[in-house]
């Protein structure tokens, strides 16, 4: 019997942006928004924490009750147990702070948490349970899957360097002092641009533009406007709409994002806001959110941690 041998040294160590955990003041309102507008389902609940999912995964979004609204952590799915150990080695060699030698999330066991530049807690794991039922009817607009995150970083180069050198992200496009980077064929899993040190939005893939119409109608029933869209972005070519979520976070629903299948031949683009070029944000209209609009004012910083980081991984 001939076995196909896979050279793991050439395989990227991170395969997906798995989830995000957000600290909010009003836990009940956050869960209400996630279930009635976003169409998510509660998969686990304690007195001060609720996990939510759109599909088989145990969770893609977590809300944690807190006196201060902030980003608790971001979860990146490793390509396997081998990749978790490889990332451990790279993090240790780079001297990055380790916040926990096991995942923060109780349903996970194979992984750890480190701190990226800017104070962002990154949870690395390989064993997210895929044990949730699919035969349920959402009350909101249920997305297909969790897609990506966008950060406005005070030092985007430092964040991008860690993501690319330690976690094998690849640059798809350069923009606003940073870059949109990917960990799988989808154009971006993480946007990192120059800004005030906040996670601006979390994004979810939907089936098609019909879902955006359903979302708009649902928000209209609640007398709430979208923050922006629908637009077709230049970067990523995805069709997107944005609405406000709990904790002063923006939420993006999108479809039709371009896939990059050949890392060897792909050449990153360079997008500019100079001379009124709006195509980075929209190919369809001449309207880009101005600095005084609500969407430009949203976002949350990383949570401050109690106690010192672990010195190293054992």
Which strand order do you get reading across the main beta sheet? 14-15-16-13-9-12-11-10-17
Oligomer: single chain
What string gives the helices and strands in order?
EHEEEEHEEEEHEEEEHEEEE
CATH topology of the largest domain: 2,3-Dihydroxybiphenyl 1,2-Dioxygenase, domain 1
* The number of domains: 2
| Count of DSSP-assigned helices | 4
Level of helix content? 10-25%
Largest sheet: 9 strands, mixed
Radius of gyration: 19 Å
Strand content: 25-35%
End-to-end separation:
39 Å
Question: What do the pLDDT scores average to?
Answer: 93
General form: globular
Low-confidence stretches: 1-5, 308-314
Secondary structure topology:
Elements lengths: L13 E11 L2 H10 L4 E5 L3 E5 L7 E5 L4 E9 L2 H14 L3 E3 L10 E6 L3 E6 L19 E9 L2 H10 L4 E6 L2 E5 L7 E5 L3 E8 L3 H13 L6 E5 L6 E7 L3 E7 L13 E2 L44
Parallel strand pairs: 1-4, 5-8, 9-12, 10-17, 13-16
Antiparallel strand pairs: 1-5, 2-3, 3-4, 6-7, 7-8, 9-13, 10-11, 11-12, 14-15, 15-16
InterPro entries: Glyas_Bleomycin-R_OHBP_Dase, Glyas_Fos-R_dOase_dom, VOC_core
Pfam families: Glyoxalase
What would you note in describing this structure?
InterPro entries: Glyas_Bleomycin-R_OHBP_Dase, Glyas_Fos-R_dOase_dom, VOC_core. The protein is an alpha/beta fold and 314 residues long. The chain has 2 domains: 114 residues, Roll (2,3-Dihydroxybiphenyl 1,2-Dioxygenase, domain 1), CATH 3.10.180; 153 residues, 2,3-Dihydroxybiphenyl 1,2-Dioxygenase, domain 1 (Roll). The chain contains 4 helices and 17 strands. Strands 14-15-16-13-9-12-11-10-17 form a 9-stranded mixed beta sheet, with helices on one face. It has an 8-stranded mixed beta sheet with strand order 2-3-4-1-5-8-7-6. The termini are far apart.
